[in-house]
Structure prediction request, 241 residues.
Amino acid sequence: MSVQEETQTEGKIRITGSVLVVGNGAVGKSSVATMLQKYQSEIANSAEIIRSIRRTNNLEYEFLVSQIFQGQLEYSVVSQLLVPPGQKASQEGNAGRSFKQVMDIYKFHIKSIEVILLTYDLTSRESFNDLKFWLNAVDGFYNPATQFILVGTHLDQAEQSRAIPQSGIDKARQQIQNYYLKKMPDWRGSCLPVEVSNLGGDNLEELEFLIAKCILWSNGYIEESELLDSYDFLFSDDSLF
Ligand SMILES: Nc1nc2c(ncn2[C@@H]2O[C@H](COP(=O)(O)OP(=O)(O)OP(=O)(O)O)[C@@H](O)[C@H]2O)c(=O)[nH]1
Ligand SMILES: [Mg+2]
Prediction:
């Protein structure tokens, strides 16, 4: 399903990459994929859109096209978002398929994953603690050039009921990096944290840009320092957004 292709159209270099979105049920994986695609045109209807999203029981698919200027070059980055269910195991009497059941069906079609979104709900400690499960669950879907983004959703509710302090996120980021470095000593990636609201649209534009940059980095079009500079710029107070 993932094709790393480079074609040049109208002076733009076109790159395609795959993004796997994982995390517990109801953290907002389908919502983030849907809103990343729609936020510019549909932010006024975001509540209606995310409320209408049903629990995932197959592999959902969305794609984004992002224009990225880097030095003298213009890239058109196509991000294929793959969203499996958050259900961890098949349950008796439950018609919904689990993550594993769905990935077992599709794994032979997925060539490589450039970015994994480890998704949790900022107001749910359980969804954050369960990221340990998801680190293991994605085994076999990453490679030394895969980049991880730690995505906290429900930012709109975090002021009232944030369950994970900044220090916990920093610690998790470090632990995740150490975990993958131990498993893959030649891993070139890092784990970058981002907090979004699928309801209000906060940081969705930044997340889209970051995903596109990660795909460029994963395919060797930009240096790691350029990726990290972009991250610092996007999430600093000097950011243009
Ligand atoms: N307030 C708020 N609600 C959100 C946000 N993201 C998702 N939701 C709500 O959470 C519900 C669950 O979101 P989904 O996108 O279906 O969650 P999922 O992770 O895809 O869940 P599964 O398909 O069961 O694995 C949605 O219907 C939204 O109402 C957010 O950022 N803010
Ligand atoms: Mg879903």
